[in-house]
Write a structure and sequence with these properties.
By secondary structure, the chain is mainly β. Helix content is 3%, strand content 41%. It contains one helix and 18 strands. The protein has a single domain, classed as Single-stranded right-handed beta-helix, Pectin lyase-like (Pectate Lyase C-like), CATH 2.160.20.10. 44% of the residues are buried. The chain has a seven-stranded parallel beta sheet, with no helix packed on it. A six-stranded parallel beta sheet has the order 2-5-8-11-14-17, with no helix packed on it. It has a five-stranded parallel beta sheet with strand order 3-6-9-12-15, with no helix packed on it.
């Protein structure tokens, strides 16, 4: 599913088995509400937000995706990620990279094969990154709750 420069609401959908990411939300005029969807078994990430999008992403379940449950990239990209569940993904639950920003509240990332949440150092979070473990549940992942790294895509050769 591609959502480009839209203010639509997407709810109650099952988005699965995509060749790339399941739901792609992008563009500077993209401010959709993405709520209560199931996003699973995609060959890249479940939900990918980039290119300046500012969606409200809440109460989605992202599982068994080949990369991440939710990925956020690019300057001016700033989603609100609230009460999502990212579990059993091949890498981490949530990824933020390349100057992205996001509000992260009450998300649960568990049983992913790497970390609950991974980000590059220049990204900005609300609340601040030192408070993310108290406002989200990232602890039940084999490599830990949070990882800050310059190379978050090294595991997939990028």
């Amino acid at each position: 599913m591609n959502i480009l420069d839209s203010t639509c609401t997407v709810t109650g959908c099952r988005i699965r088995d995509g060749i790339l990411s399941g739901a792609v939300i992008y563009g500077h005029d993209c401010k959709p509400t993405f709520i209560e969807n199931e996003v699973c078994h995609n060959r890249e990430s479940g939900i990918f937000v980039f290119a300046g999008a500012r969606p409200y992403v809440t109460k989605n379940v992202c599982f068994s995706n080949h990369h991440f449950g939710i990925a956020v990239r690019d300057p001016d990209t700033h989603p609100d990620l609230i009460r999502n569940v990212c579990k059993d993904n091949m890498l981490s639950g949530i990824l933020m990279f390349y100057h992205a920003a996001a509000m992260l509240l009450e998300n649960t990332c568990e049983n992913n094969q790497h970390w609950g949440f991974v980000m590059t150092p220049e990204c900005d979070t609300s609340p601040d990154r030192d408070q993310l473990v108290t406002t989200n549940a990232f602890s039940k992942n084999p490599m830990g709750a949070i990882k800050i790294t310059e190379e978050p895509l090294a595991e997939i050769g990028r």
